[in-house]
Amino acid sequence: MFIRAIRPSGCYNRQRSFPCNRLCTLTSSFSRRTSPHPFRTSSVGDTLSSRHPGKLCIKPLPPSTVPRTNFSTATATMATPNRKKTVAVIGGGPSGLSAAKSLLEAGFAPTIFEARSHVGGLWTPLCSGVETTQLPADLKTNVSPFTCSFSDWWPHEAAAEGRVKMQLGVREVGDYLQGFRERYIPEEAVRCGCRVVSVSEEEQQGRWKVGWKDGGGGGENKEEVFDFLVVATGTFSDPFVPFVEELGRFEGLKLHCSKYDGEEVLPLTECGKRRILVVGGCLSGAEVPADLALRKASLKESVREGVEILHLFTQPPWILPKLLPFQNEADPMAPRVLPLDQIFYTAREMPEPAGPEEKFRTLHTGLKAMMGTDQADLGPEYTIDDYWSTKYPAIGMTESYDKFVRMGYIKPVLGRFAGITEDGAVKVSAVAGGKSEDCILTDIDTIVFATGYTPWPSLQRIFSPQMLAKMGIEPGTHNPAPGLLHPQLHKQVFHYELGKTIGFIGIQPRPFWVGVELQGRWLAGLFAGTVPWPDEQEVLDHRKGPEHLLSLGKVYDANLVVAQGGYLEILGDMSKALGIDPFKATRAAAHTPKPFIPAHLPPFGTAPNEYAAAAVNMLRLSVEKASYAPENIAKAVFAELQGTWNLTRTLVSKLPGFPDGTFHGTAVFHPRIPTFTPLVESPGRLFSLSPPPEKPPRLGRDVQEYLYTESGELTTSTGLKLQGTRRYVYSQCPETSAITVWFVKADFGSEGKVDYFFHCVDFTREVENLGFPGVEGEGGWKAAAEHLCDKDWYWPAYRFVFKAARLERFWIRYKVKGPQKDYVAETEYVRP
């Protein structure tokens, strides 16, 4: 059985994908000091190409070179009634916490070592004296709370009518993990403020000596011996930057996306001529250029054209919204809307594809149907043609990136970052597919690397030289590529050369929360002897790579290995090793779609609890009610307004002397950083002005304000031609997601300063029938409003028609009555 699902892949190197810090399923922590020098040379001897320094060239090990002794002779001793076996868990992030819970339930005595003063890993407040990759406090997850959770801990509460919060903030996730620890892990099992400084194997015993310093690393050295070792130091602990040795030639600003701050890279106050390059095509690789483009759009028009934003990527990324419109069988033009993960993570039973290429074609076909495009409208660099349809999909999650490409604010470069020339220019090498070529990018003043992370430095700082040698890495190798580790780990959990008393949790490229929970369950079962170890030959076959697996007829294994697995594939494979069916509860759900969530897992070591039941019930409410909720519809519609539209307006007046006729022109919804905050004064109807946020999010924010400008020509019924312009401000209320429309001050030049409130686009109001076919047509989402402007009443009405996930066209109608006015104007908007 092939479980079809699509998951966000990592950044930059599509041969060995490197995940990005914006993937919400960051699951590990790091109990050591992160290197303060993220730009260092990668040099790993024969594992790197001598012709292309820094380029990773990994080949499967032939049978004759694979040692068999350590794994085949190592044993995992079961816990005895007299003494619980001890386990050192390095890292107190989601991976370490989940693993410790499973170990406790399996009868072990785990001890979590966490360098910070709090558990939670990346999701905890920055601790003084502990330098680690740290998520900004204003960052939000890019998937729903269901994906950022474990199977039996759900403290979230549903809002009115079952509406579920679509995204969580960093602090909310940190609070979730702290609550998980308090419920399931005793305090004596957690040592916060203890930084691990060394790990070595006890001779002839298969036990592990762990050295640490308390006080966040400033205390005295201590050591303790444990029966087992779990490494949960994190995938995202250290930035990975290719060709670090050449970056000294680049004289401009260079930084990894984990340190990105838009105000530093492109300030709005002082901005001269700029040429900024973003390297990396997935997740943060899409969010960073989108954020820079929004900053460019917010500059004064006089300086805007002096800023150029280039985006270099090795494979066309699918640009997907975090809040995804999807098929509404009752009305295909009025899609339902849910977080992307609730659509993608639907388990479907399908025939196993004949090989990886067929599997990837299936995934791309599903994406094309879902989005209604192959992205050819964005340009040849983004087109998912026959060649790219045989590669694993690259994913960028942002509502605005594609619109900025259409506006010309992001300029794509298809190719691979190949280093820096002697005179400081950027080298780009061609990639396969026929749409790129070698080139040199000159006059670049800033490079932002969205090239992912590597788990190696954290391991190098604590593992003994003997352990590193078994893994093929020298202690002094700086910032090795992550692809040197991931193929060595069987099912991303254990290393053949290190034996059966050590396991890795959440260190794979895509450490989904429920995935690491299953890893922890499996590893606890292996250590306890209640779950059989994989056959030695199976492990060896996997190490030889997907082509070898295909030659043996192991199509399922080859498909899983070649892309290091998708979300549901990983869960299904790990669950098979545990002897459970993770999708039984998913299939039994009465609602559609039927997304898998962690609460669907059978319990491990405990009886089902009320938290799992609460999560399942909230999912039902989300699918049945929230997918039709006005706030979700408003978010999807507002995001799709961005950019240029052709408009045709029909004007019908009942008063003599007032012109009627047809207006043809162009409208632009120009995005900009919010210049104010709309505040609700009465439920959904009246809003007032408030200052904009003092510190907007550094990354991952949605567009929340447009300056609407239209211009064109009115041809009256008498043949008279009149030129006309109009401006409004469209804003999305951060509190309610309502779309609000505001008048613009007439004396503020071209900057479009907001004046006062006009109306709110209310998706709960009925549209009045006036005999106009646009707004009153069949299908699509409809909305209405009313507004008294001095002595004149305005009754706006809207109809939005989608094609798949994209807004295809929409209508706005105004009915106006007053002492000197009595007319109806209906406007149709279509993309050029």
* Biggest sheet character: 11 strands, antiparallel
Alpha-beta classification: alpha+beta
Task: Compute the separation of the termini in Å.
Answer: 44 Å
Number of strands: 39
Overall mean pLDDT stands at: 86
Beta strand %: 25-35%
What general outline do the C-alpha atoms trace? globular
Stretches where pLDDT is under 50 for at least 5 consecutive residues are: 1-69
Annotation field: number of helices: 19
**Helicity, in percent?**
10-25%
Radius of gyration: 28 Å
Structure description:
α2 runs parallel beside α12 (513-528) and α12 (513-528) packs parallel to α16. Strands 27, 28, 31, 32, 33, 34, 35, 36, 37, 38 and 39 form an eleven-stranded antiparallel beta sheet that branches. Strands 4-3-2-8-26 form a five-stranded parallel beta sheet, covered by helices on one side. It contains 19 helices and 39 strands. The model is unreliable at 1-69 (pLDDT under 50). It is globular. The chain has 832 residues and is an alpha+beta fold. The chain is 21% helix and 26% strand. Among the domains are: 242-449, no CATH class; 629-830, Lipocalin. Pfam families: DUF6314, FMO-like. Residues 641-831 form the DUF6314 domain. Keywords: FAD, Flavoprotein, Oxidoreductase.
